[in-house]
Fold these 4 entries.
Entry 1:
Amino acid sequence: MNAALLNLLRRLVRKGNLTVFSSSGEQVILGDGSGKPATVRIVDAEAEKAIAVDPSLRFGELYMDGRAIIEHGDIFDVLSIAKVNGLEHAATVSNMLVALQHVLRQQVMSRMPVNRNRHNVAHHYDLDRKLFNLFLDQDWQYSCAYFEPPGISLDEAQLAKKRHITAKLLLEPGQKVLEIGSGWGGMAMYLAESSGVEVTGITLSEEQLKISRERAAKRGLSDRVRFELQDYRTVQGRQFDRIVSVGMFEHVGIGNYSRFFRKVRELLKPDGVMLLHSIGQVCKPWATNPWIEKYIFPGGYIPALSEVLPSVEKTQLLVKDVEILPMHYAWTLRAWRQRFLARREEVVKLFDERFFRMWEFYLAASEAAFLYDKHFIFQLQLSPSLEAVPFARGYIEAKERELIEFEKTRPPLEPVDI
């Protein structure tokens, strides 16, 4: 086995039960024997060198290419052992230099004036719609579900998420709502049907735009729910009673937070309310994992709250409520991953084996991040007005009870056309 890789593994893998076979057939058993065992075979000597130099990027690439093979357990088990031991933060001199290159490149790109948002969004969200139908819930909610009460199904948890957010928006019939990052239209349709509001949803994905318009027309909502292909920065000449953004803030980029909240303040009426739902981290990450940034979410960045709130404060928007959901995305990702694995043959037929392994790695790595890196969801409720939101949180639960009664009479959702 490559000497640098062997030294790295022996020095860092102290917990767990990991067996590694080198390209020469050498077997190395690592860890303290605890937990679920996993075995990795590295196919060639060049792969060993690549992992030793840049494990955070190259291991995922080699797994995609079939040059790092999981022979016992699965990729989630291997990544869990890596997370427990901090293996992706391996601190050799060469790794530190490579990591610094990743950080500098991402920090510079996040501050570039050239708008690549549409390109970045298309990279992920304009894939064949059949792919998302394989693992999402019936409403195609591609953000963290809300497993309250615990143990409910993915579909029930995604409905609970929409209900919880709607309750925090304090909607009144006839109000105008802006949804920044409208996905496949499910949230906008729920807001309109449950609360009698008019919703404008904006997206940078042409495929999401097409599907959203199809769904709204099918439900007879085209007069109250409109979708536009537009960047939030270009919305002009309008103000809204409410603004909601779910799972989009991760794509804004740390260099644009002040611009984002200034725009929210500009678009929100003086007594308006905004609900922002985003992934967060417990400390400043400085950069996204380079494999995720390259293959899954180019331009993405998951902030610490300490990086977000200063930009909110500069706009003099009042933080009316902060809620932290610490485990709900891990449960969501596990459900997605299990569904995705169960449809392997269909994914391979749509794309190929390499694509399947890429998305398996993405879902497994994301779940591991929420379990071991303590990623979480935060919901920020913002308003320019002191009195726009009640001074105690009881209204949220009361409104959720009302929405549950509405859901009993709501016509069932039609499957998304694929």
Entry 2:
Amino acid sequence: MSSSAISFKNINKLAIPAIIAGIAEPLISLTDIAIIGNVDTNPIEALAAAGIVGSFLSAIIWIVAQTKTAISSIVSRHLGSNRLHAVKTLIPQAIAFNFLFSLVIYAVTAFFANSIFSAYNAEGLILNYAEDYYQIRAIGYPLTLVTFAIFGVFRGLQNTLWAMKCSLTGALVNVGLDYLLVYGVEDYIPAMHLKGAAIASLIAQAVMLIMALWFFFKKTPFNLKLSFNINPQLNGLLLMAGNLFIRTAALNFAIYLANAYATDYGKNYIAAQSILMNIWLFFAFFIDGYANAGNAIGGKLLGAKDYVSLWELSKKISKYSVLIALILMGICALFYNEIGLIFNKEASVLVLFSSVFWLVLLMQPINAIAFMFDGIFKGLGEAKYLRNLLLVATFLVFTPVLLICDYFGLKLYAIWIAFFAWMLIRSSALVFQFRRKYLKKEI
């Protein structure tokens, strides 16, 4: 494979659309947080509820959407070895699996919504708001998970532009409908508060799915004709997805623990934590655009057994990811105090937010390295290593650090110091493993 495959132009041809597509989902949540946090009725409780539900939704979607990454990895490797015909029956089977699994997830979580959010230490009005908001948002599971599976096909085919168009359109629809449905339009549309935000998100997800299906049928060599002869690649895909399920479950256990502790500290703390976490996730998805490029190109290079280019790819994407992280840090440093005001006007919440936000910013270059190598390792099919690393990082690093710091009364600092240590061990271990396993092949 020529070095042009890992040129600045080719990497950014995949990364920039992937960044825009990736930030659409957290942008939907950030829009909800910003608009809900400024409603006239119980803004702190509404913000806290939206933050808790947003974290839980992200957790579930990240876990069950790992088939997207598995699909992307398998399609890109078969593209690199010129054997796309071998996965033509696999794609509809994988999409069908995502759809059926999403129905199960919806049925179980919607029924136990009260118990789920009680486990986050939500109570009273916050719990009522969270349950009402979730019951509507959860309907979108099948829409989102089918869309993500199709996005995995696009990325495997080295195209992130189609997903970008779908995601950007969905985000714009969500922003517009948020204003209309949350605040209402006098004499025309009643103000619907949190429920309005949930309905806006649901409509945006439906728009993204419709667009994704159009690109799938018009632009790819695949179809949705379901064959009952199981594709031999399906077991490998589900095994990889299963390892990534466990990995992502460990990741989201850390996020759950953080939100549960913040809720226990008080409503001002969980409101501030909701803003911090959603900004952190926004940064993660933004930087993840280069991880997606690494995922797509890395799988293709592995399929072609081009280890020299694979090593070059890791170096180039590392530089670009860290640069993006530094730019984001700089922008947020310039508007440090103004950023909190976008999401809430309560002084008690803003003081907590400002006191910890610098720590969230400081960890971004470390996050960039971790996310970038995550993406490359997924493209290489290294799901087992990623699973084991997250289990170690979460249960032997994040959790003990959080418990120790909480014992000393650090509260929000305890949460973000634990996240800092968590990301540091992840990034270090990934760099070490990549050098150990793939640098010797390049040589």
Entry 3:
Amino acid sequence: MRPTSLDDVAGQAHLLKPGSPLRRLASTDGAASAVSVILWGPPGTGKTTLAQAVAASSGRRFVELSAVTAGVRDVRSVMERAREDADLYGLSTVLFLDEIHRFSKAQQDALLPGVENGWVTLIAATTENPSFSVIAPLLSRSLLLTLQPLTEDDLGVLVDRAVEDPRGLGGRVVLAPDARSALVRLASGDARRALTALEASATLAEDDGEGLPTVTEELVATAVDRALLRYDRDGDEHYDVISAFIKSVRGSDVDAAVHYLARMIEAGEDPRFIARRVIVLAAEDVGMADPQALPLAVAAAEAVQLIGMPEGRIPLAEAVVYLALAPKSNASYVAIDEALADVRSGRIGRVPPHLRDAHYPGAKRLGHGKGYRYAHDGEHGVVEQQYPPDELVGRDYYRPTGNGFERDTAGRVERLRGRVRGGSADGA
């Protein structure tokens, strides 16, 4: 069912406007102005389809390589042949390289001479962010075109076409409206998934002798069994889901947080990775608003280590629900980052003499420890004394919020600062 021309491609309308790079590539007289492109998008959105449609429409020599099986020798062989065809016959070559992110730096380097000298017009496809997976020289010499997941309307067109087209089911079955909706919904923007599910469902449809077999919603559910997740633990979907998970917990949306937790678990994400993120969330986003959040997160991580999966999902869910519902404060996180920023910028200063180590021989002669006041001798265990270097006297890093436990500690922080800095004699 793969389209043979750009006009038959469903979806990606933003890349197929008149005069667009792909349209110029596909034109028979566009060789001189052709530019290499990198197609970036999720699986099943048409990257290979677009490349093959360009090749079929342009009339140029088309060579296809897969980064899974090709090596540097294969790339150099294509480049040598492309240079000879260009020099001897004036024939331009389109090189389609699938899954370019699987190529090493050395393998991608082998593409540069052909792209720089115009021996080939490269069409590379990747499901991973090219900014991280494609070398900078190649990225700068190519146009980056981003493909979007297909819409429900796009998928509906593909499914209807596959039912009627002789290359597909050729009208041998009837697709019930609810079954069509189910196929579109389960595909999650992936054309291959929609067509595979349609084909599997059609094989289950039985001829009852009263007309064409009908593909029903029940047959679709039986064929597909479950909604498969598009989730690559090394790709963008991984980062998108974990980002949404973190932001849902931070934003106190317990239901969304549990949803994203379930997506990661169902997709086979390493539960230890999830547990580590939960610990970071407890410290960074709940913090001192609920000091019990961090011990609970650590306990959940230890439980996952002890009992494994699938039972580990239960302590993970308990920790996630607790964190999502807990009061939030990033005051500790902000405090250490501000302190680090001061240190890195040179705001350090000498340790005050009365706080320096006075235990080694000769330290007292240098004045170390002289004038130090023992905190336990003071009322409430607090004495007036300078603790930071001179440059940082009066610098406040920790600013408690009014949330949760910090609502009660905020006043204590101010009282302690006043007593230590000499501005107040109130109790601690």
Entry 4:
Amino acid sequence: MDIMVFAGLKEKIGDTRITLDIKNEPTVKELKETVYRQYPALEGDVFQVACNESFVKDTHILSKTDEVALIPPVSGG
């Protein structure tokens, strides 16, 4: 599953995309667990998951054809 990453997450990973080897259709919670496991530099970072340009909850089931993005909190003024 290809996943876009933004802001501070992108800086820590060093790329704008990550690819996770996920079988079946994971929930958002399972996706987050896999991200933390495969990218330990992100451990403790908080981010939301967007699926097809809408934020989704941890119970949402993702499809391999979904456009998925990890978006950390953003502040602005």
